[in-house]
Amino acid sequence: MQPVMKSAKLANVCYDIRGPVLARARQMEEEGHRIIKLNIGNPAPFGFVAPEEIIQDVILNLPEASGYSDSKGLFAARKAIMHYTQEKNIPGVQVEDIYIGNGVSELIVMAMNALLDAGDEVLVPAPDYPLWTAAVSLSGGTATHYMCDEGAGWQPDLDDIRSKINSRTRAIVIINPNNPTGALYPAELLKEIVEIARQHQLIIYADEIYDKVLYDGATHTSIASLAGDVLCITFNGLSKNYRAAGFRAGWLVVSGEKRHAQDYIEGLNMLASMRLCANVPAQFGIQTALGGYQSINDLVAPGGRLCRQRDLAWRMLNDMPGVSCVKPQAAMYLFPRLDPQMYPIDDDQRFILELLEQERVLLVQGSGFNWPTPDHFRVVFLPNVDDLTEALGRVARFLDGYRKR
Ligand code: PLP
């Protein structure tokens, strides 16, 4: 019999956060080992549950949620999202500019599928949340990575962005706040990115799913609020700000220069229609979430659980010889650097696998985020202080052994 092969479309599609290292961790768990997992940004298993009022609203509305909704989503939920765009100073958003999806993930793939033809290029940050690179590839485009500068707090390198634009470049992706670096971009930098997009007629795709997970009193600026004359597609959802990742509720907002984008918008409408609609019960949680008590603020405030975990993990990493880590201003990740002189790593996946085998701690290698050199890894700081201390203690012990090899 002929072997059944996967589609050639998948040749350059990669999503290492749930890749071979996770498969090995699962196998080890089946063998009875306890693995401390610092690998996935899924808040609920670590005790960060969705606010009760959201859960209650979903339950209350369940009897009304058996049918399909409008393909773009429930009107009341989209209206609440529209009000949220007004709070964020994004100009000119109407209810019809809003599409609700089964998480931001579905909408990222939809937005890229609606846009790209073979040979089209999209500027994607390095490091990135790898779904962006994967979605561009799956849609037949090419992800061109622009560098974020670790020495400058992981801000995008504007010269690198400019140098990578050519006649095939269609769009630029901005992940702000950033996964995996925890960087938050200031308005001045965002304005410069908008100017680049304006000059080169690029669409801005803004992934802002962590826009409320901010530390040290920081505030978030939506790039779309600075780009009234540039086509902007902004993504957000319930997964992180409201710790409801399993609900699968996200949205996409079209703003800015829409007049010349009617054909693209038709494409988005078609793809939204083809999948009928997003999970309806979860849509009933959106209005309550956006209008309700923002309990995320308690978690990120000084002394709040997330803030304490960030501080602990950041300090412990920087105390390890040859490890340096930019302090995250937002989100739930750290992306430390290993000094290549002290840790001469050829293959960072193998390195992370060895850590797993020896110390039963699960991390994700930097290359999983399209980082070009094997000298970084990502830490999720969702586990409680005891588990983080235990896990990072084991990482320190592993690195100690690695240096002495
Ligand atoms: N965008 C970023 C930057 C993320 O980190 C994640 C999940 O980790 C997503 C999108 C996916 O979000 P959702 O759960 O809404 O699909």
UniProtKB/TrEMBL annotation:
The gene is yfbQ. InterPro entries: Ala_Aminotransferase, Aminotransferase_I/II_large, PyrdxlP-dep_Trfase, PyrdxlP-dep_Trfase_major, PyrdxlP-dep_Trfase_small. It holds the Pfam family Aminotran_1_2. Its cofactor is pyridoxal 5'-phosphate. PANTHER family: GLUTAMATE-PYRUVATE AMINOTRANSFERASE ALAA. The keyword Ribosomal protein does not apply. Its EC number is 2.6.1.2. It is an enzyme of class 2 (transferase). This is Glutamate-pyruvate aminotransferase AlaA. Keywords: Aminotransferase, Pyridoxal phosphate, Transferase. It catalyses: L-alanine + 2-oxoglutarate = pyruvate + L-glutamate. Signal peptide: none annotated. Residues 35-392 form the Aminotransferase class I/classII large domain. Pathway: Amino-acid biosynthesis; L-alanine biosynthesis.
